[in-house]
């Protein structure tokens, strides 16, 4: 359905222009912020999300074990979904679920058994998407965002 592709010089401007709906501001950092921060984030993996040649979103992950900012409460053996953004005009088409499948794929590449993500607990947030994917809320809230953690499922049969 969608592909996660490395950000290129040719494609970066289109990714920078993608935005969420105005009522979703504050749920995820704007793409220019994510792309800029990635240059200084150890072990980051940032990809544009594409349907064919059309950019539909952006995802960023961090391989947490050994990361310099790891906290005592961070789940062991987890890949961290740092950012997931689906453009306003592309929401409701299944791209969020498809991006989560790609996040699980990357977690398997890293050999991780868990996926973790922080989410703002609002009605219009991605909380339900993450719960449907098997992630479960923890008691940990950081900067107003709840930590969710779940197992990385086995790879789908080829």
From TrEMBL:
Pfam families from the UniProt entry: Acetyltransf_1
Chain ranges of the N-acetyltransferase domain: 2-153
Swiss-Prot/TrEMBL keywords: Transferase
InterPro entries registered for this protein in UniProt: Acyl_CoA_acyltransferase, GNAT_dom
Classification via SUPFAM superfamilies: Acyl-CoA N-acyltransferases (Nat) (SSF55729)
Alphabetized GO MF terms: acyltransferase activity, transferring groups other than amino-acyl groups
Record-linked PROSITE patterns: GNAT (PS51186)
Name this polypeptide is given: GNAT family N-acetyltransferase
Annotated source species: Oceanomicrobium pacificus
């Amino acid at each position: 359905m969608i592909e996660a592709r490395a950000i290129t010089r040719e494609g970066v401007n289109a990714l920078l222009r993608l935005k969420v709906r105005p009522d979703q501001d504050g749920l995820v950092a704007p793409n220019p912020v994510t792309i800029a921060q990635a240059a200084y984030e150890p072990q980051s993996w940032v990809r544009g999300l594409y349907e064919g040649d059309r950019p539909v979103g952006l995802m960023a992950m961090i391989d947490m074990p050994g990361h310099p900012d790891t906290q005592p409460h961070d789940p062991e053996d987890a890949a961290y979904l740092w950012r997931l953004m689906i453009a306003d005009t592309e929401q409701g088409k299944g791209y969020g679920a498809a991006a989560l499948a790609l996040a699980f794929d990357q977690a398997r590449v890293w050999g991780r058994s868990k996926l973790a993500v922080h989410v703002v607990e609002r009605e219009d947030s991605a909380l339900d998407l993450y719960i449907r994917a098997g992630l479960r809320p923890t008691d940990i809230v950081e900067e107003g965002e709840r930590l969710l953690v779940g197992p990385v499922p086995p790879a789908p049969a080829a």
